[in-house]
Amino acid sequence: MLSFVARRTVAALGTLLLSSLLVFLAVQALPGDVATQVLGRDATPQAVAELRGSLGLDRPAFERYGDWMWGALHGDFGTSLVSGTAVGGDVAQYLGNSALIALITILFAVTGSLLLGILAGLYRDRWPDHLISTVSLVGMSVPEFVVATVLVLCFSVALPWFPAVVLYGPDATVGQLLPAVWLPALALAVVMAAYIVRMARTSVIDVMASEYVTTARLKGLSTWRVVTRHALPSALLPVLHVIALNVAWLLGGVAVVENVFNYPGIGKLMLSSVQNRDLPVVQAIALISAVVYVVCNLAADLGAMALNPRLRTRGRTR
Amino acid sequence: MTTVDTVRADAPAPRAARAWRTLRSSRAAVVGLAIVAVHVVIALLAPLLTSYDPIAGNASQALLGPGGAHWAGTDQYGRDVLARVLYGGRYALGVSVAATVVSVALGTVIGCATALRGGWFDDVTGRVLDAVLAIPAVLALLVVVTALGTGPAVIVLAVAVVFVPQVVRVVRGAALAVVPADYVTAARARGEGTWSILRREILPNIVDVVCVEFAMRASWVVLLISSLSFLGFGADPPTPDWGLMVAENRTAITVVPMASVAPIIALATLVIGLNLAADGLSKAWGVDRITEGF
């Protein structure tokens, strides 16, 4: 079992290393050298060459990749080409603001969707199921910016309960951001929940049809006990993976929603740094996103293994 | 060889007929495909359905509410909202269909090939695709679009980069179930090449998975491309596009709500249609779509 954990972790690290290489290569492929980008189009070739030298751009790509990775491992992602400050500190600040949204989104989406999904699964093909399934189908059919726009229309324009845009910069305190967090979180939660609801429903239906649930029923256990003690633990197993994937998806999802609300989070930073060709920032965000994705998947794998002994043995034969 | 060919030649007909019968029995699939068909027809017939130009504005007619001359009102440049919504389907459908076809086709070929070849080829491809998946879709799209400029061809490419790995995962899983079959072993023993086995033995058996995959991916691609347009990286401004329309008219949402709501309705119905079709197809053909994850 320990070797299984070790193997999964090593594989995750390998994936991470490979994605960092891909990110580095992709960003290198962006047209326009960083030096020309900084100095503008009218710069003399001599000035460009000088800046290239001072930025270390004249060295081979391999060496620069090594340097970048070595720095990143020590928390040093280089300096931003736009603000001139350390990328690590900037990104951490924006990431913290986004974490606030992410936390609330995950809390809402996971609890809400599990409840709805289980309800739909237990009342299969009756009205609660039809209602929940229809709503979740609509939820997964509208993009985040549409949900966000509709929410603004309802809860900022029609009913002025929440601010439609955030007026603070990245250094806002939690107290300043808190009133503005709810609408973006709700928009993300709606889209995210739709997938988890469907997964939880199917999974509950599968488990409720299984033989051991029938046995538990025939033993004369109450429905409540059958569901909570016998059905749910195994029904939630496949849902775990979908939740992990969705948490990783959040990082991309915030890009759109944060721009609707002008929320100073990682998504807004992502978009503005791509627009400004602030390559060190783009690289740092991509690397951090890859880490989140890989960690979420690893956590889901290991969590599933902890809950399901069969997976452990299957892992050994593979 | 000829006998095998004749048997194969008449085999697809009953298969297709059966697939069509089960498809018709699923209400969700029929409704979904009908919605998509309506969207396609509207996009094709847009010039006949409205006499307004979707691009040319009339400043004296700006920001009108719904009325007799402009059924859905006008936007800030005085362009007819209904005309822009009707024409908007052209960009959304055209680019999305192209992007989905490229992603699913490439993904299917790579997925089948990895399942068939196995060994180091499978391992290496799997690793590389995992690494691509670890980068958020929106960021990958933005980087590709920034690198190569906006244009339909670039967006098709960018979407393919994002979705091919996911299609490969699903198709590889389906193909792995077929590879151990006796007729594949027989084809190998006959000395057929990888490509020929792939096309004649494996593909016909996973065609249902690929179809469901296509409908499912299409809905995601439409969402992703509209998001990209909304962020200003997709369709270029005068083009009528739903995502772009929402972005343009969002600031005037209190004045002319219809200018934002109309494209939202168009977008949502198209994706609901695609999702219904995917759900219905997977149920009718017994493709266990949802447990495959995504």
Summing up helix and strand content along with how strands pair, one would put the structural category of chain B as: mainly alpha
CATH topology of chain B: MetI-like fold
Helix share bin of chain A:
over 70%
Largest sheet of chain B: none
Q: Per DSSP, what share of the residues of chain A sits in E-state strands of 2 or more residues?
A: under 5%
Secondary structure layout:
The complex is a heterodimer of chains A (318) and B (294).
Chain A: H1 2-28, H2 34-39, H3 45-55, H4 61-73, H5 87-122, H6 127-141, H7 144-158, H8 174-208, H9 211-218, H10 223-261, H11 266-275, H12 279-307, H13 309-317
Helix pairs in contact in A: 1-12, 5-6, 5-8, 5-10, 5-11, 6-8, 7-8, 7-10, 8-10, 9-10, 10-11, 10-12, 11-12, 12-13
Chain B: H1 2-10, H2 12-25, H3 27-49, H4 81-117, H5 119-133, H6 137-148, H7 152-178, H8 182-189, H9 194-202, H10 207-231, H11 242-249, H12 257-284
Helix pairs in contact in B: 3-4, 3-12, 4-5, 4-7, 4-9, 4-10, 4-12, 5-7, 6-7, 7-10, 8-9, 10-11, 10-12, 11-12
Quick description:
The complex is a heterodimer of chains A (318) and B (294). Helices cover 80% and strands 0% of the residues of chain A.
What key attributes describe this structure?
heterodimer, A: about 325 residues, mainly alpha, 13 helices, globular, B: about 290 residues, MetI-like fold, 12 helices, about 75% helix, disordered N terminus, disordered C terminus
